[in-house]
Amino acid sequence: MPARALKDRIKAQISAEGPLSVADxxxxxxxxxxxxYYTTREPFGATGDFITAPEVSQxxxxxxxxxxxxxxxxxxxxxxxxxxxxxxxxxxxxxDLLRVCTxxxxxxxxxxxxxxxxxxxxxKIQQETLAGAPLKPDFRTTxxxxxxxxLILIANEFFDALPxxxxxxTSDGWRERQVGLSADGGFIFGAGTxxxxxxxxxxRIAGSAEGTILETQPAANAIAEDIGARIAKPGGAAIFIDYxxxxxxPGDTLQALYRHEFDDVLAHPGEAxxxxxxNFEALAAAxxxxxxxxxxxxxxxxxxxxxxxxxRAGALGAGKSREEQEAIHDAVERLAAPAEMGDLFKVLxxxxxxxxxxxxxxxx
Length: 364
Fold this sequence. Notes:
Blueprint: H1 3-17, E1 20-21, H2 22-31, H3 37-40, H4 53-56, H5 58-74, E2 81-86, H6 92-101, H7 105-110, E3 111-116, H8 120-129, E4 138-140, E5 151-156, E6 165-170, E7 173-181, E8 187-195, H9 203-206, E9 213-216, H10 218-232, E10 236-245, E11 255-258, E12 261-263, E13 273-275, E14 278-279, H11 280-289, E15 293-294, E16 298-299, H12 300-307, H13 309-317, H14 322-336, H15 338-344, E17 345-351
Parallel strand pairs: 2-3, 2-5, 3-4, 5-10, 10-14
Antiparallel strand pairs: 1-7, 6-7, 6-9, 7-8, 10-17, 11-12, 11-13, 15-17, 16-17
Helix pairs in contact: 5-6, 10-11, 13-14, 14-15
């Protein structure tokens, strides 16, 4: 069904049932079975709307693979464990990760690979990418479908696409922001009747001026708590990588990408990618509620440099042409430079008791 029809269906739903929360609007735009962005479009790469770190360079997935090997050893090298990726994109990260893990045959022998992906179209691409990989993936619809056992989990640019709620400060408290219809039939934001409880607003934000927006991420937090609970019992480790912020604060981070350009989030439902910055403070707290240990987060640049990005780039470029070496240098800059992905993206590691996850420091 064309995206234009999705816009019309959303308008019809609002007309019949009233305004939608921002979370419901995001869920429809991204996940509608017939016209949702992730169910009908190719979001990744030059022909899509954005390029993720694994598509920038093989070094990204390789360094994450090295951290997973170290976590496996810290777990006591279990005979069986679940290797999981949430939202695997085109399967590129996992392909690069598994190539590194061939250095430790026991890791591959013990691992059962699970990819959590809801899009049949993306599952097909992931299957093609991993056709020659040393592990064959089992596809799962939700994290809850993962079998029991020790766990090593990767989530790169997964949480940013989960629906968020927005609340706007008004004269009578924080009201949920909604998507409704204007007098001429277009989409418009407004404040609904649902209210954010006062005890859910951090004291440093409570006195914000009217019109201030505060975002919450219950869907992301619920998954992080479930992961924390799984890791706390049989043991394991998880790494979350996304663009976001380290401390809860006010601000509207909801954004749309349409044909590699930023767009009005209400302009092209089903045609544009909708995302929001991830609250890593809330994500870490949720994992801790599940019983896991959230290690002090760091920027993607720090994570990659401490993991050996420069050393890997040097080895990869040895003996190559000047053009190839320049391409590797450009990839390092794109991944780790503060002005590129280095500072915007944050990395959080979550572990079971006594399990380390290099290159992260132990929890204070």
